What we know:
The structure holds two protein chains of two kinds.
Chain A: H1 2-17, H2 24-30, H3 37-47, H4 55-86, H5 92-129, H6 135-154, H7 162-183, H8 188-216, H9 220-230, H10 232-266, H11 289-293, H12 297-300, H13 322-351, H14 362-369, H15 378-401, H16 408-445, H17 451-454, H18 456-479, H19 483-536, H20 560-597, E1 613-614, H21 617-634, H22 641-663, E2 664-665, H23 673-701, H24 719-728, H25 731-740, H26 743-821, H27 826-849, H28 854-859, H29 877-887
Parallel strand pairs in A: 1-2
Chain B: H1 6-12, H2 31-34, H3 46-53, H4 63-73, H5 79-90, H6 100-111, H7 117-131, H8 141-148, H9 154-157
Helix pairs in contact in B: 3-5, 5-8, 6-7
Main location (chain A): membrane
Family (chain A): Belongs to the TMC family.
Transmembrane segments (chain A): 243-266, 322-342, 416-437, 490-509, 636-658, 679-700, 736-760
Amino acid sequence: IFPALKSALSEISDRSGRRPSRKQAPRAEGAAGRRRAQPCQKEPARGSPRPGSSQRKQAERRRQREELGEQGRSSAERTFEGRRKRDGRASLKEQRAPPKKEKEVPRKEEMWKRPKKHRSPSLASSASGGESLSEEELAWILEQVEDRKKLIATMRNKPWPMTKKLRELREAQEFVEKYEGALGKGRGKRLYAYRMLVAKKWVKFKRDFDNFKTQCIPWEMKIKDIESHFGSSVASYFIFLRWMYGVNLVLFGLIFGLVIIPEVLMGVPYGSIPRKTVPRAEEEKAMDFSVLWDFEGYIKYSALFYGYYNNQRTIGWLRYRLPMAYFMVGVSVFGYSLMIVIRSMASNSQGSASDGESANFTFSFKMFTSWDYLIGNSETADNKYASITTSFKESIVDEQESNKEENIHLTRFLRVLANFLIICCLCGSGYLIYFVVKRSQEFSKMQNVSWYERNEVEIVMSLLGMFCPPLFETIAALENYHPRIGLKWQLGRIFALFLGNLYTFLLALMDDVHLKLSNEETIKNITHWTLFNYYNSSGWNESVPRPPLHPADVPRGSCWETAVGIEFMRLTVSDMLVTYITILLGDFLRACFVRFMNYCWCWDLEAGFPSYAEFDISGNVLGLIFNQGMIWMGSFYAPGLVGINVLRLLTSMYFQCWAVMSSNVPHERVFKASRSNNFYMGLLLLVLFLSLLPVAYTIMSLPPSFDCGPFSGKNRMYDVIQETIENDFPTFLGKIFAFLANPGLIVPAILLMFLAIYYLNSVSKSLSRANAQLRKKIQALREVEKSHKSVKGRKTAQDSEDTAKDASKNATQLQLTKEGTTPHSASQNETPDKKAQDPGTSSSASGTMLPASRHLSIARPPGARPDSGPARPQTHPWRSASRKSAQRPPH
Amino acid sequence: MTLGDPRSFCDLAPQLVPLDYTSCPDVKVPYELIGSMPELKDNPFRQRIAQVFSEDGDGHMTLDNFLDMFSVMSEMAPRDLKAYYAFKIYDFNNDGYICAWDLEQTVTKLTRGELSAEEVSLVCEKVLDEADGDHDGRLSLEDFQNMILRAPDFLSTFHIRI
């Protein structure tokens, strides 16, 4: 019985492993008794390079291969099982089948262990001997080793219990270790082993390096900590903050490395020329803290601001072209920011592209994915329970409301009213800012102004930012929107408020700039006259040349660029302080009060009125975005601004982490981080664009100050490029550039770009349409399959169980069958065999194409069976095939 | 290959688990201790999780079961594996399908029973309506996977920080 059993099993492995190339060998080997020797005699003659090998050696080799075949069988069995598992669309039948198989594997292994034990030494010795293995065997071992390796790699994906995983892993590893060395032949063997060793080390190194990389991500632990307490939505703010910090760090490196450090190292030192010296009138107070705090005095005349830079074409022994570098860095700050924002938006939307039909599963998603398994804090858990309950209720209400009609006129009226009120608020706040900025311009002309009058603009803007959002929220209650839509509106309105404020501020600033520009001509004359008078005044010895006028005494213009830079600097710093003070007072003190006064208060403070503050994600994100907008706008006129911002982000990371953990409670209304992320990015992109506009306007259309900054003396700032092209590049390049700048070329280029955008857009639209169609097709296919299965479900399940259980029994049955069928005539035998085989091959072919339905067609009995009794094993292709091979001997 | 930490397993029940856990690998930690781990104690499905990963479904775990649990719930585990075990967790009566009763259990656990019976049944009805592809009144693993693999935050929420 034993050989027949083996042959059956080898057939199973062969079929299931789907390796037709190797089918020949095991089948031949599996042929019963005396026939077996024949193919084996052929094999070595084909495979081995030396024809003069003895009979004994051949026999040994045959034994080796047999032994390997057994091992290969078990692995093939496993890979087959694994593949079935991985097929994903696992049906009920597959769910039931694997446990049986799992149980079966040990049984088989027991069977194989016996022969393996006494054979493996010979194999091991011959394997280490190396040269006695033929090409074919080597290829086969290679394949086996590859299979095992694949198994090791995919072990993680299998829903096996740990003991099984460990056992399989160990076995596979042992196999790989044992036979890997045998693969190299002769001289190349050592090299092969060495290469394997290196590959192993490399894998280990890569894993260690990945670990190291995750450890190197800054604040990862802090953010994870917050995530586990507050859920992923709050953590998303901190991830955004970290991303922002990274972007700012790059900008900082750009500006510091290419502008500020060269200027400090190689530029003319402080005090050598008027623009680098504090004027005589300010000298007394230039070091006072109150003056420095306003970024006047020494700070104003430092490398942090535009005005400090000299218009010398090249500086230092490196002949560094500073004005050129300044201009290019200013442009590339915007370029880099645009690129990085758009790239991260694209990668975000790529991730969320798949959830196009997530609207179909609102309740299911709420049911199965709303619980955040990360939550490890009972307070958070309580909040989560509450928020899940509310979200369920919300959805229920939505569901009910979709059928219900209500008083649409009243709602409309209320919504119009609310929008009207909010527009009024926005206009009012805009006017207030305009008014305040105008006033501050007057104050700046006066001499001794109070602290309030000096900082009025910042204070008013901060107050507006603090009180308008709650006001909007109150008004929004009128509208009776769905909370999610309401939140979007709220975000949009706050955005509009901030934007309006910022732009009003900018317009007022622009007025100021124009005023300064108009004064510039007179100041220029005054400077000229002063110098002229100084050098030509009488009463000085004519023979000795007069020492040059001290730079502090030279009258100078108001340098509007520096003034703009200072405004942005102040705004950033005051914004930062207001944020911190709000956190300290509004969150921390409130939390302390609630926590400690609760012992002696007449009502429950924690549950009642003040309670703890929530972490305001939308407000914080918007604040961050607008702060970044200011940085983008201001960084051209105040290169040091990015440095300040890096500090600000760094401190706010630690400070806000601490504040959140110490004094905030999680949100009632949770909105999902994965969705809103791109919304924030979109806002950021909008702000970036809007902050690009004023900078571009000033660069392109305002003349730079005549006595400060790297572009002084030029008509426009961008003239620096033309100058560089003319002086430093060969003339033909200059011509090419001039040609490129021709409007006749630029307009067609823009048109071409529009065309390209249109084309790509239509292509992507058609692709997404095709995608939707394919999805529909898959859906339809699945439905067909399901209906098919629900009919056959029970039957196939039963059948598969039989298959698994009877795999070993079959073999014995086969033997019986063989003996039972031999009395029949040959022609009678032939027909059922063929019938059984054809569906088998066709089913395996279809199985490769459509793995989901493979088991179905394999397991299903192929049509009506002509003969009932002994032909039972024909239902399975491998059985019939094996039977055929088993039947071959009687001739 | 796993992220579970044997030390935390020992910490759960120092009197039960010898430090050298290899000497007797079959020591079981009772569910009362597993369920009170900081990672699980606030999870409404902690009992189900323990049952699914324990060998005989009673929630008592050996070290191997424990490692299994954390390797599935770790951040690195593949989607399909997670979906498979999520299905097992939500299949309260272990019959291979998520039926209306299982759904009711889930909703009750998620909301701590704060929804009325009508609302619960409405929710279950809606879920079956949405996710039941073959309209047999219950969710098979296939239906479940089909639904859950589209969920945008299944992967981010279905893992335990270790």
